[in-house]
TrEMBL record:
UniProt record, GO biological process: cell wall organization; peptidoglycan biosynthetic process
Regions annotated as coiled coil: none
GO cellular component terms, semicolon-separated: plasma membrane
Cellular localization per UniProt: Membrane
InterPro entries: Beta-lactam/transpept, Beta-lactam/transpept-like, PASTA_dom, PBP_dimer, PBP_dimer_sf, PCN-bd_Tpept
Gene3D superfamilies: 2.20.70.70, 3.30.70.2110, DD-peptidase/beta-lactamase superfamily, Penicillin-binding protein 2a (Domain 2)
Keyword Nucleotidyltransferase set for record: no
SUPFAM superfamilies, sorted: beta-lactamase/transpeptidase-like, Penicillin binding protein dimerisation domain, Penicillin-binding protein 2x (pbp-2x), c-terminal domain
Enzyme class, broadest EC rank: hydrolase
Keywords, comma-separated and alphabetical: Membrane
Protein name: serine-type D-Ala-D-Ala carboxypeptidase
Listed pathway(s): Cell wall biogenesis; peptidoglycan biosynthesis
Lineage, uppermost ranks: Bacteria, Bacillati, Bacillota, Bacilli, Bacillales
UniProt source species: Terribacillus halophilus
Domain PASTA: 597-657, 658-713
Length: 713
């Protein structure tokens, strides 16, 4: 009886205990159901986060284009490969979407991406052994081209997936590289590092968007995925003032000079003196932004490398004298040497001079003594300094590029004040020289140089910003500018003018030569006095009476033969670029002897002609003509009626029955131009000139056909 009572009490205790536990748990469940929270965490939000995928919608970086809309920099898709290795990812075992054969997968992919198959096998197997969902293939599996992606997709290997990301591409290779600059992926984002890419990085970058949705355990979207999309806003497009054809002329010419004379450095700038628009600018050494390895010089020397300009400075000394009313071209002076004081002696470049000559002849012969006399005895040293500052030789030009470094006016001692008159001691950059010279070419108005033409929204096509001509000073009057131009023209045309090598066939030229000593890098004066140790330059404008273009060229320490002069590499650049650029711009020649010859160098009107007749008409201008297809009718061409013919330019005629031409040896620019004419999907590999093409010669072409072209230097 006693034992039975004890059992009943224990049963009641246990029943009470379980009842309390039940009530606590039930209460907890009721609380969770009512509040939806556990330990301060909202369960609904927690569940949604666990089954929600979200990722960034990357904005497309804006394009950089030339003044005519030719693309100079744009985003190009590349691909990275990864492998799903977990069996759990395959809901249907008969149709697996994970890697089922490690050996086969590794070997077949390795052959396409040029990787070690053993390394890929190890990565795949380790991922499986460690229970990972997916594995990547390292650097070998990234940066794949569209062609490589297609080859791998054609293998139909289960478990192989791709991610797409953009990389910056520069279709012209070494082309205005220090202007356009370089952008590379940094921390997952393409970021501008130099040039316009850096200067306008915020405008080019745009704004990323995002997308999120709910999915199941296998990664598939739910029927009601609660998808949220915030669209990306692509970066603005930037149009530059440079002209792709004139820039190409400049690049090709600099490359030829670099190969023939192997100078230490070359800088060249071509500007419209009326607007300040830079139509071409380049330096050597330069680099290919698609392959920025072993770069010798990242800097844009045209704006960031101040040098002693030499005798090109004399044009500003003479202009200052004219403005002050101190210039008499017929007055004579004794050339050879000059002592402005007991300590300073100035000598002409030929030491003995040319006897008693006029000031005009002194300018034509590039006499140091002549300009020294002007500063010491006519203009005055203090007044000359005022003009140097009016020409802004002591400040930046304000060009819209990063990294501009102005030169310095060295003007402490009388010897420095006098030597500045002929460009020694005081330093300036090419962009400073050409900016100051714009006053002489533009009725006394000195314009601010600029490289950006406009910024355009890619979606609305609305112009966000439009650059305008800006006059930053008027150091001289129109009358002084006109008289200086005539003097500079005589430097080129007179029988003893140092500028004779720069005379053009069809246009008059006004300009001034320069030969500057190279400061010794170890200090203590200048390098050894021999002709390979000079900076040779020319600052010229054409046509002389009303310049449309102004150009500065400098070549430092070229390897000259005994029979060669320092003006030869400089003149080669100036004459080739200036003559062809003026023809291309359709500027009327002012050298009448060659008028008939010039009119024959324009693209004829081939509208309505048969293919054969159009080919003949274009060949008669001296152009190399490529006919694309066998059709009798002309569907399109890459040249327009009335355009000036540039020597060596390739004309492409697309017929109404286009077939693939042999493009081996074509430049990347020409290949991309062909792609635009035929509306092909073109992928370029490497840089240089076309080496192989994926579409065989003679193959019939259709719109959006894929063409892969491999280039080689």
């Amino acid at each position: 009886m006693k034992s039975n009572k004890t059992s009943q009490r224990m049963a009641m205790v246990l029943l009470s205990f379980f009842a309390v536990i039940f009530l606590v748990l039930a209460g907890r469940f009721l609380f969770i159901q009512a509040s939806g929270e556990v330990a301060g965490v909202n369960l609904k939000e927690f569940a949604e986060s666990k089954r929600t995928d979200s990722y960034t919608l990357e904005a497309t970086r804006g394009k950089i284009l030339d003044r005519n809309g030719m693309e100079l920099a744009y985003d190009q898709p590349t691909y990275s490969i990864y492998a799903i290795v977990s069996e759990k990812y395959s809901a249907d075992k008969k149709h697996p979407i994970h890697v089922t054969d490690v050996d086969k997968t590794a070997e077949e992919i390795a052959a396409i991406i040029d990787a070690d198959s053993a390394d890929l096998k190890e990565r795949l197997q380790k991922g499986i052994d460690d229970g990972l969902w997916q594995v990547e293939f390292g650097s070998a599996g990234s940066g794949l081209s569209q062609d490589q992606k297609k080859q791998i997709e054609d293998l139909e290997l289960p478990g192989i997936q791709f991610t797409e990301e953009a990389e910056r591409f520069y279709p012209n290779g070494t082309f205005a590289s220090q202007i356009i600059g370089l952008a590379q992926r940094k921390d997952g984002v393409i970021t501008g590092l130099t040039g316009i890419e850096q200067q306008l990085n915020d405008q080019l970058s745009g704004k990323n968007g995002s997308i999120s949705y709910e999915r199941d355990g296998y990664g598939y979207k739910l029927l009601n995925p609660s998808e949220e999309v915030q669209a990306a806003h692509d970066g603005d497009n930037v149009y530059l003032t440079i002209d792709q054809k004139i820039q190409t002329l400049l690049e090709d010419t600099l490359t030829q000079v670099n190969k023939k004379w192997n100078p230490k450095k070359i800088s060249a700038v071509v500007m419209n003196p009326k607007t300040g628009e830079i139509v071409a600018m380049s330096n050597r050494p330069s680099y290919d932004p698609n392959n920025p390895e072993n770069v010798e010089n990242w800097y844009n020397d045209a704006i960031s490398n101040p040098v002693e300009p030499g005798s090109t400075m004399k044009m500003f000394t003479v202009a200052s004298a004219i403005e002050e009313g101190k210039w008499n071209p017929d007055e004579k002076y004794q050339s050879g040497s000059f002592k402005p004081d007991s300590k300073t002696k100035i000598s002409d470049w030929n030491e003995n001079g040319w006897g008693s000559i006029t000031y005009l002849e002194g300018m034509q012969r590039s006499s140091n003594v002549m300009v020294a006399n002007l500063v010491a005895n006519k203009i005055g040293e203090d007044k000359f300094l005022e003009y140097l500052k009016k020409f802004h030789f002591d400040q930046k030009t304000g060009i819209d590029l990063p990294g501009e470094i102005p030169g310095t006016i060295l003007y402490n001692y009388q010897s420095e004040k006098i030597s500045t008159s002929y460009g020694q001691g005081t330093t300036a950059t090419p962009i400073q020289m050409i900016t100051a010279a714009s006053a002489i070419a533009n009725d006394g108005n000195m314009v601010t140089p600029h490289i950006i033409d406009k910024i355009v929204d890619p979606d609305t096509k609305k112009v966000v910003e439009q650059k305008k001509t800006e006059v930053q000073g008027k150091p001289i009057s129109k009358g002084t500018a006109d008289e200086t131009l005539k003097i500079l023209e005589s430097v080129v045309t007179s029988e003893h003018g140092t500028g004779k090598p720069y005379k053009l066939d069809d246009y008059s030229v006004a300009g001034k030569t320069g030969t500057a000593q190279i400061p010794n890098p170890n200090g203590g004066g200048y390098m050894e006095d021999r002709k390979n140790n000079y900076l040779y330059s020319f600052l010229g404008m054409a046509p002389a009476d009303d310049p449309e273009l102004i150009m500065y060229v400098s070549v430092q320490q070229p390897e000259l033969k005994v029979t060669e002069t320092g003006s030869e590499p400089v003149a080669f650049i100036f004459k080739n670029v200036m003559e062809n650029a003026l023809h291309y711009m359709d500027i009327s020649p002012d050298q009448t002897d060659n008028q008939e010859e010039v009119t024959e160098k324009h693209v004829p009107d081939i509208d309505g002609m048969s293919t054969r007749a159009a080919k003949k008409a274009l060949e008669e201008t001296g152009m190399e003509v490529v006919v694309v297809g066998e059709g009798d009718k002309v569907a399109s061409t890459n040249v327009q009626s009335g355009d000036a013919v540039i020597e060596g330019e390739r004309a492409v005629i697309v017929t109404d029955e286009p077939t693939m031409p042999d493009i081996k040896g074509w430049s990347m620019r020409e290949v991309l131009e062909l792609g635009e004419l035929l509306e092909l999907d073109v992928e370029t590999i490497d840089t240089g000139y076309a080496k192989t093409q994926s579409i065989k010669k003679g193959t019939k072409l259709n719109k959006n056909d894929y063409l892969a072209v491999e280039f080689s230097t």
